[in-house]
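Hello,

Following up on my earlier ticket. Below are the two sequence lines again, exactly as submitted.
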Amino acid sequence: MPDILIIDDEDHIRKLYTDFLTREGYSVESVADESEALKILSEKEFDLVILDIELEGESGLEVLKRLKSDHPELPVILNTAYAVYKSDFHTWMADAYLLKSSDLNSMKAKVREMVGV
Amino acid sequence: MSSMTEARSVGDRTQCISALFDESSLGFFFAGTEGHIEYLNFEAARIIGFNSVGEACGQSLQDIESVLSCGLIEAHRSALKGRTFRRNEHRCTNRNGHFAVLSLFCSPYRNDEGEIDGLLGIIQDVSESYGRKSDLERAICELSIMAEVSDALSSAVELEKVIRIILTGVTANQGLGFNRAFLFLVNESESILEGKIAVGPSCPEEAGQIWSQLALQQKSLTELLNDYLERQNAASSPLSLLIDGWRISLSEPSIFNRVLNDARGANVCARDLDEPSMEILRRLHTENLAVAPIISKGKRLGLIAADNQITGKAIGDADVQLLQTFANHTAVAIERSRLHDDLVRHAATLEERNRQIAESQEQIIQIEKMSIIGELTSSIAHELRNPLTVIGGFANLMLTAEAGQYNSEYLNIILSEAKRAESVLHQVLDFSRASRTESRELDFKLLVSKTHELLLSKMRRSQKQPVLNHSDRKMLIWGNSDQLQHALYQFMALSVEEMTGECTVEISTHVEDGRALMRIRFTGAEQARKKVTTTLNQFFGSSTGTQKLSIIVAGETIRYHGGSFGIEGSAGNMPGIYVELPCRNGGKNA
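Thanks for your patience. The regenerated structure is below:
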């Protein structure tokens, strides 16, 4: 069962994605900020990270840089409400870019593509 | 006895007069009742032209009068009648052939008994003072001409007006009094001297007519200047045609160029002249020409040429000198006129620049406003996207869960509305992204074409495709390409998505009253007309809906670009949509 880590500062978003992906058969953990993320990543191995860009008080792009530095093999999907970040050079480090939407099928497809299950 | 007494009496009288006047610096003479000179002093003999006093005594007044013609006979007659006689500043040639200006005063001479015995005259040579007075009068006249012309020039700044005043001053009898005057100006860029304007009669008949009229009117120089200025056809007068288009190379060795190079006026006579100079005289039909260069601060501006071709009066060096003084004055006026022209040009340029700056500032303010609105809408849209994702996402989850089976209708409504709200957010975000691009010159037809292509790419195959027809005219507008394309797309999409099932749609471009116009027309049966009317009223009216929001945003974009939009057509007919934007340069480029 692939392990997925969700990093998003919004409780309801974390709850939605956790429930959805759990139903889809994944093992899901979620955290609200960088420090929690780094802590859990040091304790457990994950197959995929879904990362929000606009985190409260910090930039998801900085977290992405750190993740890719510490875990270069770990795939990361940037998940955001902002389409404008797609053209930002810093987002190119991510493995995929996903726009937040009530239609969860796009997320399902992208996750499958990343973890292969 | 009486004749002896009389002789003694005459001798006494002569001795008496002699004693009084021999040494006087004025000329005195005495003539008896018979009109013969009985006495004159040395000065009188010199003035009349006798070599000695002795030679003069006994001469008749008649003989002297035949030489001097100064009124001696009339003076003698008057004296015998007891009256005095005076003649001032009489110009004549004396017995020795010398020119002199004389003043004569005669009075009756009475003896002891009070009877008139003859005429006692004072004759004075006033040549020197007359010359000085004449010079003074001439100088006063010149100053007066200059003052009047200067007065007229002081209020004239247009070169054409300046030129007319100058040439009027040269030719008016109250001015320099030349018959004709010609003005040539240097064209530095082509290194030529160009004939500009001429003033004066073209033939003796015309001269007679004009001069007799002027003599009758007795106008002052100022009045004449005003008269000439009121005439607008001086440039096309026959005399002007004589020099119109005349171009003389500045390298040609003619008298005109010599005058310009020497910076000194010349009295040109048709004698011993080089061929280029003779050609100038021939072309002006004259044999004697006064030429004065117009030079300001060492810069050659042109020259004035003047002649007396009609009267044939010879031009003197003094005339040339006066013309030169006039030309110097002219140089200042022309230079001032050119400076004024430069100033007017610069002022106009500055005014245009100021207008452009003000326009740019206005645009910057508008862009900043739009940018702020864009950022604000973008921020609000992003804030709304998260809750919508959560609402729609959970509705999705509930639908797939078992519990969802009981509330599927409601959950589908929540999901559908969430998607609809997301679609609105998408449009608003498109607009806010468009707000960040800069304004530039745009080809309106190209913009419509691109938008039309975008529309076709997003249409379902089952939908009727709108036809696009362009005007042949070029339509340039100014604006933000992304914003305008977004706005035009909203109008096109509204027409297609809401109505193509009922009717066919034609999109066309036009230029009307300097405005670029996009029209969306519908064709269909009565049922289609009703549908189109209802739909357009719904979207352009006061009802609410998601499409209405996109039309509001599109409409604001059009209005921000100085344009307008709306429904056109009369009641009972198929209505249409129009969107218009101002053309660059008021549509002159169209």
